[in-house]
Specification:
5-stranded parallel sheet, Rossmann fold, 319 residues, binds (2R)-2,3-dihydroxypropanoic acid, single chain
């Protein structure tokens, strides 16, 4: 039987690429450059399946031009805001994602961002590294303590729950906003808020874990940032679209927010150059799921979805 033709748009983990080469007639973009709209359209006439990352944008415009040969887009990501799902559905193309397997890695990174932002990691690292550490005082680099503080989680899905588990290790009082209240077996004592606004009022630390959708775009705007307690710390390891970056910068400059920890930006790659001058913004380049174990698991999950599809089954993560 001929193997389905598969295009892998980016340099996935070695274990993933080996398995893909064993089971598919695969072409890998070893140059590891993001696939442009034109490349996606061209590939759709040559391949039965594509494994893209969030760097490949299947917009409505691209979806309309895709060749009917392409039957499945098996994303190597949990987020699918780079895919216009209704348009792809209309074209009869199956779309899958990779939930679950990256929750712990992303929650670990959110914890790093929260601790780093709260304890002056940017300035502290710089002054030691640059040989400028020539002074110590009890009032030097005094940060905000995480242990026992109130944590607000927006989006109590898999990653939000994994983050809550880690935050319990710091004895944090956990509050959350979610579209629906979780059963107690999942909430594990976390306090539900039926509106984001009521959550913000108690969030000394705030961590965003919801998807980017038209409803959540600029969720953290000037009005909502103003509801946070003075000196709060905000963390975003979900998507840049959730935060109005000008409003965030203003709140930080005013001292209303003490610090922010960001792994995601409105413009990626690149981030926001205006943030660079601010030591109280601890930044990383969208690497929440970037651990060896998780990259293998994401690749295998995407391949599991493809295997199921080509075996005539419904993929586990079909959206
Ligand atoms: C995801 O899986 O959505 C991560 O942001 C990496 O793409």
């Amino acid at each position: 039987m001929t193997k389905p033709r598969l295009w892998i748009t980016r340099r996935l983990s070695d274990a993933t690429l080996e398995r893909a080469a064993r089971d598919y007639d695969v072409v890998i973009n070893h140059e590891d450059t993001p696939g442009s709209a034109d490349e996606l359209v061209t590939a759709s006439a040559e391949f039965d399946a594509i494994i893209p990352c969030h760097s490949e944008h299947f917009t409505a415009e691209v979806a309309a031009k895709l060749d009917p040969r392409l039957r499945i887009i098996a994303n190597h990501s949990v987020g699918v805001d780079h895919c216009d799902l209704p348009s792809l559905k209309e074209r009869g193309i199956v779309v899958t994602n990779t939930p679950d397997v990256l929750s712990d890695a992303t929650a670990e990174l959110a914890m790093l961002l929260m601790l780093g932002a709260a304890r002056h990691a940017v300035a502290g690292d710089r002054i030691v590294r640059s040989g400028q550490w020539d002074f110590w005082s009890p009032s030097f680099m005094v940060g905000k303590q995480v242990t026992g503080a109130r944590l607000g989680i927006v989006g109590m899905g898999r990653v939000g729950q994994a983050f809550a588990t880690k935050a319990r290790g710091f004895d944090m009082e956990i509050h959350y906003f979610n579209r629906s209240e979780l059963p107690e077996v999942q909430a594990k004592g976390a306090i539900y808020h039926s509106t984001v606004e009521s959550l913000l009022e108690v969030a000394d630390f705030l961590s965003l874990h919801c998807p980017a959708t038209p409803v959540t775009t600029n969720l953290m705007n000037a009005e909502r940032l103003a509801l946070l307690p003075k000196g709060a710390v905000m963390v975003n390891s979900a998507r840049g679209a959730l935060v109005d970056e000008s409003a965030l910068l203003h709140a930080l400059k005013q001292g209303d927010l003490a610090a922010a920890g960001l792994d995601c930006f409105q413009i990626e790659p690149g981030g926001n150059p205006e943030f660079a001058a601010h030591d109280n913004i601890f930044m990383l380049p969208h690497i929440g799921s970037a651990t060896t174990r998780t990259r293998d698991a994401m690749g295998f999950r995407a391949l599991d979805n493809l295997d199921a599809f080509f075996a005539g089954e419904t993929p586990k993560d079909q959206l």
